[in-house]
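In this supplementary section we document a worked example of the pipeline. Step one takes a protein sequence of length 425 as its only input; no multiple sequence alignment statistics are reported here. Step two produces a three-dimensional model, which step three serialises into structure tokens for compact storage. The input and output of this example are shown verbatim.
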Amino acid sequence: MNKKIILLAMICLLAHHMFAQKELVKELNKNIIELKTISPEDDFDDLKGISEFVKNKKLIGLGEATHGTSEFFLYKHRMMKYLAMHEGYRLFIIEGDFSGSKAMNDYVLHGKGSIKDGLKELDYGVWYRQEFVAFIEWIKAFNVDRDLEDKIRFYGCDINSEYGVSRKLKKYLAHHDCLTDKLTQYLNMIIEQDLLKLLSEKGDNWKDEVLGELNTAFAKLKDKQSKEYDFMLHCKRELEQNFELRMDNAKNWIVLRDKFMAENIAWICEFEQNRKAVFWAHNEHVKNDKAKSVQKPVGYYLKEKFGEQYYSFGFGFNNGDIIGFNRTKRAFDSFGVPAISPKKSSDAVFALCKFENFIFDVRSAKENEKINKFIHDNLYHRAVGTIFAAEGKKRHHFRIGRLADRFDGIIFIRNTSAAKVIESW
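The serialised model returned by step three reads:
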């Protein structure tokens, strides 16, 4: 008898859950904007509805649930194209090395060098994708025949290469006759050796000596009013950030990295006279995340700095193929991601909506009682990093949190395909 009662209770509970989910999806369907195309080559008729979201915004964050999804690259290309052509955005900032991004900026602004050189200097293998190359070529084409002030600038905000920034500092100071033999020796050590090993062997005193020599060299520079000086001064700051990252413990590395990325974005925006900007990175960097955690993402600091002038888009998907780093092969590889989500997954709910691909403005939907509960529940969201473990545990491929805290908007692509790797590079 007890078993029958339990079974009946379970059936009633399941029926209630299914009804509640059906009602939620019904309400979501009233609040989503269909994406009729992914292609950046098509018109923007279906994007007119987002003008209210991005109105009066200075900075748009475009996330990605994986670094290896073709549709994410294509749609972010489309979004940047729309924002540049219809909303006046002229600054692009990516999860790539700050000082190294100058090579790509020179390419898109002046046609100097090549995309291959630019990607090498960014020092992040996830951008070696055909879709990203097409995006860069579009920026360069957009800039042709425009006045310099009307061109799109390209920047990185990450702290990827102590070797690269040391080379640039050495070259710049040598050109201005401010490079001493001692500083040359120090910079060569960083260029030729492992910085973590150097710092562990030589300690704080050595770090202080290097930075002291750098500060003395910069103080000797005669022209301190130029844009080049300001840029190189922040390159010096990037080297300082590298020291701090390497000297801290491994657990705190991601905390400092996001904090420094946000610092660099704020500097870039000010340096570029507060042009309207787009920040392209993983969801886990772009997200606002009001959670009471030591690990604050870039978006948390951007919200503090820019307030409502920062709008973050998170990307979600249901299933498909992705490119991820295969530790066994020591190379990027294609993986299939099945439509299997843990319980209480936002991606699983979005997959039930009437449109395959859509935009959902999280903030405006808060007025709807059913949706408000949904976005304030702790839900799992797909979050695949550079490395993909096909048999990985849930924590490797999902993050949990409240949508209302994490993103201002969601871009959902139901079925995805793997990005195209440029293997020859």
